[in-house]
Design goal:
This is GTPase Der. This protein is of the alpha/beta class. It has 14 helices and ten strands. Bound molecules: guanosine-5'-diphosphate (GDP).
């Protein structure tokens, strides 16, 4: 029904059916669909809970598998010596493999890529969606006119298929913010109503959990706010690939050749430490000229990030990088002079790439050494646009005594 008031009046009679609250909607004008969407989302907590439970189970299974692998290794002296020899023998092959994987990174077949666009109100998310759909991509639904009205939008560009998830929420929230003239919500987000903020975070989480890659949009003029940092924290925690989109770049005055690089440095180092691995793209979703050159780049960068998120590297390559890293810098000596030793590392999972380090005692590896190892993996192998996870697994206590061999440091 096009008229909200008339819709409410007519819908009242449906209460008599006693099947729950009626929602008057108009498929043509979109009126009432926001309320319907809210009610649907409210009805979904069981699914989300189920999702959490499944995610938890997967994590436990992964950890269980890692522990089982440690047990199976039965790390006695001779097993460790054999591992060390194998690592040495494989060094040459691994070096070639590393060259190949860094220089001629094989194109990963991605299939369909699910993207979500996150960011505070008014940073330009709707404009970006419109630019992506209107200019750079083709709506693929054959059902006339329906693609733009659903929450998800299918687009194909350069032969790659993408689904922009939850775009209805983006448009609706932007309209609500504007209609209310809510300066705090639509502006910098400072002093935002806590209830609205909880809703915004919940919506962000829902979108995050449905996608492969997040486009986190920030406003070039406003820079990064506390709210952006919270969103970054969620992206990092959920382990999604990410592209940092700095929109409204046209508004930044007095740009020169170094402005982008400086902005990127600031945004990563000072503000979004959690997403230092994300690729940054500068866009002007509104300006016709800039749309063509930059907005299409967002999708290409997102596809690359998703490829990295799904990437698997060989155990030989990984162990070569780890061995070199320990040769440059060995783990510091702990209490009583004990030193951490890495026996073996393996990639246990993708999405995001997760590496298990089998070590003598994980407690002997301080946080800064773990960060160093992550940095080395990134430096040597890459993974731009994707988070990576390092899990450190101690050898079972029963076999720790008297251990001396292992990967040479
Ligand atoms: P959303 O709330 O994040 O979806 O933001 P909108 O897409 O609705 O944009 C908010 C405001 O910013 C609108 O007035 C847009 O016209 C404007 N806007 C969006 N992108 C750009 C841009 O790249 N440059 C400029 N100058 N304005 C923009």
């Amino acid at each position: 029904c096009e008229s909200l008031h008339k819709g409410d009046v007519l819908a009242a009679s449906f209460w008599e059916l006693a099947v729950g609250e009626p929602f008057p909607v108009s498929a043509i004008s979109g009126s009432g669909t926001g309320e319907l969407l809210d009610a649907l989302l409210d009805a979904l907590p069981a699914n989300e809970l189920e999702h959490d439970v499944q995610a938890e189970r997967r994590l436990l299974a992964r950890e269980g598998a890692a522990d089982a692998e440690v047990d199976a290794l039965d790390l006695d002296e001779s097993a460790l010596a054999a591992l060390a020899t194998r690592a040495q023998e494989n060094a040459h092959d691994a070096e070639e493999a590393l060259d190949m994987c860094v220089q001629q990174r094989p194109r990963v077949e991605l299939g369909s890529v699910r993207l979500s666009i996150l960011g505070r109100p008014n940073v330009g998310k709707s404009s970006l969606v419109n630019a992506l759909v209107g200019r750079e991509a083709r709506a693929v639904s054959d059902v006339g006119g329906t693609t733009m009205d659903t929450g998800d939008i299918d687009i194909t560009t350069d032969g790659q298929h993408f689904t922009l998830v939850d775009t209805a929420g983006i448009r609706r929230r932007a309209r609500v913010a504007k209609a209310k003239g809510d300066a705090a919500l639509a502006g910098g987000g400072q002093g935002m109503d806590p209830k609205l903020e909880v809703k915004a975070i919940e919506a962000a989480l829902r979108a995050l959990r449905r996608c492969d890659c997040v486009m986190l949009v920030v406003d070039a003029m406003e820079g990064v706010t506390e709210q952006d940092r919270r969103l970054a924290e969620l992206v990092s925690r959920e382990g999604r690939a990410c592209v940092l989109v700095v929109n409204k770049w046209d508004l930044v005055p007095l740009k020169d050749a170094g402005t982008m690089a400086q902005y990127e440095k600031n945004i990563k180092e000072i503000f979004l430490r959690q997403l230092s691995w994300a690729t940054v793209v500068f866009t002007s979703a509104q300006s016709q000229r800039a749309r063509h050159s930059r907005v299409s780049k967002v999708l290409a960068v997102a596809a690359e990030a998703v490829g990295e998120h799904r990437r698997r590297i060989s155990t030989a390559t990984l162990n070569m990088v780890v061995r070199d890293a320990t040769a440059w810098k060995s783990p510091p000596a702990g209490k009583a002079g004990r030193k951490g030793r890495i026996y073996y590392a393996t990639q246990a999972a993708t999405r995001p790439p997760t590496f298990v380090f089998f070590v003598n005692d994980a407690e002997l590896f301080p946080e800064n050494y773990k960060r160093y190892m992550e940095k080395q993996l990134r430096q040597e192998i890459g993974f731009p646009g994707s988070p990576i996870r390092l899990l450190w697994r101690s050898k079972p206590k029963s076999t720790r005594q008297g251990q001396s061999a292992g990967m040479r440091e």
